[in-house]
């Protein structure tokens, strides 16, 4: 089985061909980071325009790299939700047109489900059910992966996501966009105990997250130091921020696994590339006796392979769409 996956939910135009659900034959990504860097974040209008310019070339190269033709494909998978609506529309419109032109099934894929699927590409033995913590710039979810296509959210962020907190703290410290990787690098030379930062909690659900208070605390600390002409050690502050976020994600995930009786825990999303988060969860799972899975770093960011992989399982489950498929900016994964 050969599935083409197309991803355009934010600022990466990506395409990939995956064979038999778990073998990557090609993966092509055209990133826009350098262009958005000057604005300190993604500009939706620019992202949409670049997707229009890049998507044909990216898909063509993915097919060429995999040494397959459109006729060889069993289906075309595309991210339809959630994400920047203009960016999503480019991918969905292209995929619909391509599927109709070559008479192939169109397979809708939820972006978060795609991130979860990166673990199948890394760990050939991983099968549901298990618990997955999905942490990225827009999402922080603890999800029960009940099957390859069924999910249940038991915890989510009430405000900022973990990746958003990383990026906004990094911006306040003067790091360029995207800031999370710069905090990760600075942490290597920092003391994680140098600054005492809050671990915000929320009422109503012990597994929900809140990173807004942590972000605000860091920004206020930086502003107050600036007003007093005090120089904060960027490495130490970075290490403290990373430890706080890693501890919050790890503690809630481990507690959720114990509460709901899971023995397997997976990590996914852009923040899964963070060395502190990877280490904290890995060490906690080893200590508590859980099996732990995380994707290879090249699969942590947005990519077409994750969409092709999840699309493969959707296709096997009979989940396809017709020409009425539309992009959706916000859609909970347990509503699909």
Instruction: Give the tally of β-strands.
Output: 10
- Basic shape: globular
CATH superfamily of the largest domain: ATPase, nucleotide binding domain
Main β sheet profile: 5 strands, mixed
- Estimate percent helicity: 40-55%
Mean pLDDT across every amino acid position:
96
CATH third-level topology of the largest domain: Nucleotidyltransferase, domain 5
Percent of residues in beta strands: 15-25%
N/C terminus separation: 24 Å
Order of helices and strands: EEEHHEHEHEEEHHHHEHEH
- How many structural units, i.e. domains? 2
Radius of gyration: 20 Å
**What is the SS-derived class?**
alpha/beta
Largest beta sheet: strand ordering: 3-2-1-4-5
Low-confidence stretches: none
What does this structure look like?
- The protein has 336 residues and is an alpha/beta fold.
- It has 2 domains: 2-115 and 300-335, Nucleotidyltransferase, domain 5; 127-297, 2-Layer Sandwich (Nucleotidyltransferase, domain 5), CATH 3.30.420.40.
- Helices cover 44% and strands 18% of the residues.
- It contains 10 helices and 10 strands.
- The strands form 2 sheets. Strands 3-2-1-4-5 form a 5-stranded mixed β-sheet, with helices on both faces. The chain has a 5-stranded mixed β-sheet with strand order 8-7-6-9-10, sandwiched between helices.
- The longest helix is centred in the last third of the chain and has 27 residues, at 234-260.
């Amino acid at each position: 089985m050969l599935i083409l996956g197309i991803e355009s939910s934010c600022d990466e135009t990506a395409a990939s061909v995956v064979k038999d659900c778990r073998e990557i034959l090609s993966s092509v990504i055209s990133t826009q980071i350098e262009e958005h860097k000057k604005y300190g974040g993604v500009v939706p209008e620019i992202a949409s325009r670049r997707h229009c310019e890049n998507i044909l070339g990216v898909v063509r190269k993915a097919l060429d790299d995999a040494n397959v033709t459109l006729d060889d494909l069993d289906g075309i998978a595309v991210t339809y939700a959630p994400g920047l609506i203009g960016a999503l529309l480019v991918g969905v419109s292209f995929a619909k047109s391509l599927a109709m032109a070559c008479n192939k099934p169109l397979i809708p894929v939820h972006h978060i489900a795609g991130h979860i699927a990166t673990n199948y590409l890394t760990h050939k033995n991983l099968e549901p059910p298990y618990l997955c913590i999905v942490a990225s710039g827009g999402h922080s979810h603890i999800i029960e992966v009940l099957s390859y296509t069924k999910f249940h959210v038991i915890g989510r962020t009430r405000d900022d996501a973990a990746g958003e907190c990383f990026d906004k703290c990094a911006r306040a410290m003067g790091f360029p966009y995207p800031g999370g990787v710069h905090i990760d690098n600075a942490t290597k030379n920092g003391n994680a105990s140098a600054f005492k930062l809050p671990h915000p909690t929320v009422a109503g659900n012990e597994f929900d997250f809140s990173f807004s208070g942590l972000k605000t605390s860091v920004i206020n600390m930086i502003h107050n130091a600036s007003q007093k002409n005090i120089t904060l050690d960027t490495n130490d502050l970075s290490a403290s921020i990373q430890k706080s976020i890693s501890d919050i994600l790890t503690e809630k995930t481990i507690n959720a696994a114990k509460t709901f009786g899971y023995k397997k825990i997976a990590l996914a999303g852009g923040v899964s590339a963070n060395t502190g988060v990877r280490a904290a969860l890995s060490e906690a799972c080893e200590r508590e006796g859980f099996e732990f899975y995380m994707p290879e770093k090249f699969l942590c960011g947005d990519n077409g392979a994750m969409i092709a992989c999840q699309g493969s399982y959707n296709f096997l489950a009979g989940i396809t769409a017709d020409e009425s498929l539309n992009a959706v900016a916000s859609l909970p994964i347990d509503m699909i």
